[in-house]
Amino acid sequence: MVSRLTPLLVGGAALALATVTACSPVEDDSTSGASPSSSAADACPSGSLGTVAAGKLTIGTDDPAYEPWFSDSKPANGKGFESAVAYQVAERLGYSKDNVVWTAVTFNNAIAPGPKAFDFDINQFSITDERKQAVDFSSPYYLVRQTVITTKKSKIAGAKSLADLTGAKLGAQVGTTSYQAITDIIKPTTKPSVFNNNDDAKKALENGTVDGIVVDLPTAFYMTGAELKDGVIVGQLPQVGVPEQFGLVLDKGSKLTGCVSQAVDQLRQDGTLAVLEKTWLSDSGAPELK
């Protein structure tokens, strides 16, 4: 998988996913006598939204679709973090699995201006102000975590905790949340190395200049799976800094945006997103380091 993430500059208070609020599709009409629940049902009728295909929910993603976000490049199998999230959103909108239709859309086409052939697209889209000029985003369904990676021969390949990393020589790209994660969370006894970009960091790991490097989780999966010989994900770090947020992409001005955000908010509030993240990310090769 090609990482499409831009490292964030250090600064700002950490955002908690639980506190992210979404725009609601429902206006409070206290004079009408309608209850909030009935107003919500009116705004987002279950299984009867104004979708691309009547009675169906069309969901876009790229082809191939990479793990761990999907499994076997088959979005319809419900396996992988984003496939599972998509089906949960569909269910909250009133669409059973049989009424979900997947369509292949390239990453760049999904976020380009213009009408869409999908109701929403899920493909590790970071929410940015620039992209908001062309498309709508739902409430975030995932906050990107920082991750330590190494190679099998490294002394930290078997690390199980933050304490196991304090004696390691680590490195990360300059001015990123990845670097902040090293200094603020791991706090190694040896000053971390700073690199101009992740490619330089990867080379330092390959030649043994550092014991491990810190990158965001999507990049960690890509580097260890496609770029590094004997690459190993040591584990995810606790949230730090201002994390990137992944959101579902919808057509600009879509009437579904509020309903989809409402569904994502429900999944966050009832703990479903946390369960899916643990199942498909933490328990699938990227354990959490504490």
From TrEMBL:
Composition bias type Low complexity, residue spans: 31-45
GO cellular component, one term: membrane
Annotated GO MF terms: ligand-gated monoatomic ion channel activity
Keyword tags: Signal
Keyword Ubl conjugation part of the UniProt annotation: no
Keyword Signal set for record: yes
InterPro entries: Iontro_rcpt_C (IPR001320), Solute-binding_3/MltF_N (IPR001638)
Domain Solute-binding protein family 3/N-terminal, residue spans: 56-284
Signal peptide limits: 1-18
Domain of life: Bacteria
Entries under Pfam families matching the protein: SBP_bac_3
Domain named Ionotropic glutamate receptor C-terminal: residues: 56-283
Disordered: annotated span: 26-45
Identification of the protein by name: Polar amino acid transport system substrate-binding protein
Species, as recorded: Actinoplanes octamycinicus
Lineage, opening ranks: Bacteria, Bacillati, Actinomycetota, Actinomycetes, Micromonosporales
